[in-house]
Design brief:
Blueprint (H helix, E strand, L loop, with lengths): L6 H4 L7 H11 L2 H14 L3 H10 L10 H15 L3 H13 L4 H15 L1 H23 L1
């Protein structure tokens, strides 16, 4: 690493695209998931929801190297491992369906996680997933 250059001269520029972030949000998350989080967050911490959308959906999700499906698999695994993030996990189950994952593939994520994160965490994640999948089926039946 060069010591005479400013960091901004030697680090790769990140791509942050606010408009693309909002487009990606619309593609990935259903309206119910968005409304369950973003307006309330804006009331508590003005501007933070916009930052999340810009940095996450308009930055991280736009990076090369992983498909949207791969990113959802990672999200499901990470959120299950964390535990206690049921609204986010349920939202990402619905996102998985939106991008073409099957119900069987989503369920299999939790089965596969059990020996790695523990059966209780995997079961808790599966319960959230089952509820999100059932909600989606009810909505589709309307």
């Amino acid at each position: 690493m060069r010591t005479n250059s400013a960091l901004s001269d030697i680090l790769t520029r990140s791509r942050l695209d606010r408009d693309e972030g909002y487009r990606m949000l619309q593609l990935l998350q259903d309206e119910a998931t968005q409304q369950a989080t973003l307006p309330g967050l804006e009331q508590i911490a003005p501007g933070w929801a916009d930052w999340i959308i810009t940095a996450l959906f308009g930055g991280t999700y736009l990076r090369e190297g992983l498909s949207l499906r791969d990113r959802q698999l990672v999200n499901l695994a990470a959120l299950t491992t964390l535990g206690g993030v049921d609204p986010q996990l349920g939202g990402h189950v619905r996102t998985g369906l939106r991008i073409g994952m099957t119900q069987q593939q989503i369920v299999e994520v939790f089965v596969h996680l059990a020996p790695y994160v523990g059966v209780p965490r995997a079961l808790a994640g599966l319960r959230v997933a089952a509820e999100a999948l059932a909600d989606t089926q009810r909505e589709d039946a309307r």
